[in-house]
Amino acid sequence: MKTIYLDNAATTPCRPEVVEAMLPYFTEKFGNPSAIYNLGQVAQDAIQQARKDVAGVINAASPNEVFFTSGGSEADNWALKGVMDAYKGKKGKHLITTKIEHHAILHTAQFLEQQGFEVTYLDVDKYGLVSPEAFEAAIRPDTVMASIMFANNEIGTIEPIKELAAIAHAHKVIFHTDAVQAFCHEKIDVQELGIDLMSASGHKLYGPKGVGMLYVRRGVRISNLIHGGGQERGKRATTENTAGIVGFAKAAVLAEAEREEQHERQAAIRDHAIQRITTEIPHCFLNGHPTQRLANNINISFEFIEGEGMLLRLGAKGICASSGSACTSGSLDPSHVLLAIGLPHEKAHGSLRATLGRDTTLEDVDFMCDVLKDAIAGLREMSPLWEDFQAQGK
Q1: Which residues are known to be catalytic?
Q2: Using H for helix, E for strand and C for coil, what is the string for 188-223?
Q3: What is the pLDDT of residues 78-113, one digit of tens each?
Q4: CB of 294 closer than 8 Å to CB of 151
Q5: Band of the pLDDT at 230, cuts 50, 70, 90?
Q6: Do residues 186 and 232 make contact, with C-beta atoms less than 8 angstroms apart?
Q7: What is the C-alpha to C-alpha distance for residues 54 and 33, in angstroms, rounded to an integer?
Q8: In this structure, are residues 179 and 102 in contact, taking their beta carbons and an 8 Å threshold?
Q9: CA-CA-CA-CA torsion for 230, 236, 239, 244, nearest 10 degrees?
Q10: Alpha-carbon gap, residue 101 to 364, rounded angstroms
């Protein structure tokens, strides 16, 4: 049975070119980048080239604004904890974020509240968009920073980052964005957009797991999250993951080179699938903004069913999809994102997130649509909610 992988927002496979670039740093180029002898300097040179490559992808003013991390979650933790700690005695203890952030942001914000910081969690509209007016109204004299994701990992909505960053800067507020889902999928020019800090991860763009980065604009103060040696210019201790960093940079350069072509191709397939599903399956609706969304994101809620049953039926046909963030896939609670955009619990439970990749074809999504129609019909036949609805209709 063919596997149709439609969970690319959760993770992606490493591209062969990425694996090839990484392999030497596991074997003959294995040196510690901090060592002064040649074997160590070979590894250090590779890291510095990777830093330059990633800086070029986001148009950073300097490669030294790029810090490599173990992934997006560490980058998010470091951004919030590091900035809030660095400025707590200089400006205040207030942070602004949103109710639809990834849990790497939300749980970090909750931790900061336990340490005496204050956090404002902004509402979003039915599409998942943050209101610039509401954001500005939430800013206080003691607001240190705002963290608003570039694009939502569940519903795909892209936020008005440039406008929000401009508002933040007008009030001397530092602006961070979690761009894990958007990096190399959308055009990101940190200078043009006014981003002060940005998180990204390698395994969302056909790079390795366990590596990511935090962009920190020059002049922004940030305390260390990991203490120890003097790696990453004294800001992040621990021996560098040379192979992972090389692979991350290679994946980013390749993805950025293909970004426009893939964006157009995936958006067309996405729209075809959304049109089929919403016209051929009754009592379902699209979540997220209809146009201002990631090119590869499909998120649809189906009434009168449970998402787990739907995913099992899709999985039985070789289709890999999800009902929300991979980080909470084991939870029985409905998606906090879907609840935040106004869905009641019973509708939030019946959601499908299908995210396309660079190898996804029109035939793949057509097969998914066909299987989905049968799956939803079968689940509804067993649903007392569907039976009650049918009885009311008669």
Answers
A1: 327
A2: CCHHHHCCCEEEEEHHHCCCCCCCEEEEECCCCCCC
A3: 999 999 999 998 899 999 999 999 999 999 999 999
A4: yes
A5: very high
A6: no
A7: 18
A8: no
A9: -140
A10: 30
The closest alpha carbon to 375, from 287, 314, 316, belongs to 314
For 157-173, the pLDDT digits (tens) are 999 999 999 999 999 99
| DSSP secondary structure string for all residues of 108-134 | HHHHHHHTT-EEEEE---TTSPPPHHH
> Which two three-digit tokens encode residue 380?
């509804």
Q: Kindly list the distances between the CA atom of residue 84 and the CA atoms of 70, 99, 104, 108, in Å, as whole numbers in the listed order.
A: 21, 19, 16, 11
| Mean pLDDT estimate for the chain | 96
Q: What is the DSSP string of 16-31?
A: HHHHHHHGGGTTTT--
Non-local CB neighbours of 332 within 8 Å, separated by 6+ positions? none
| Per-residue pLDDT band at 319 (split at 50, 70, 90) | very high
Q: Which residue has the tokens 């490559």?
A: 53
Phi, psi values for residue 196, rounded to 5°: -95, -40
CA-wise closest residue to 118 among 96, 94, 84: 94
Alpha carbons 64 and 56: distance in angstroms, whole number? 12
* d(C-alpha 102, C-alpha 118), whole Å: 19
Give this prediction's pTM.
Answer: 0.96
> Is 329 a residue whose pLDDT tops 80?
no
Residue 41 CB partners (closer than 8 Å, separation 6+)? 31, 35
Give the pLDDT confidence of 33-48 residue by residue, as tens digits: 999 999 999 999 999 9
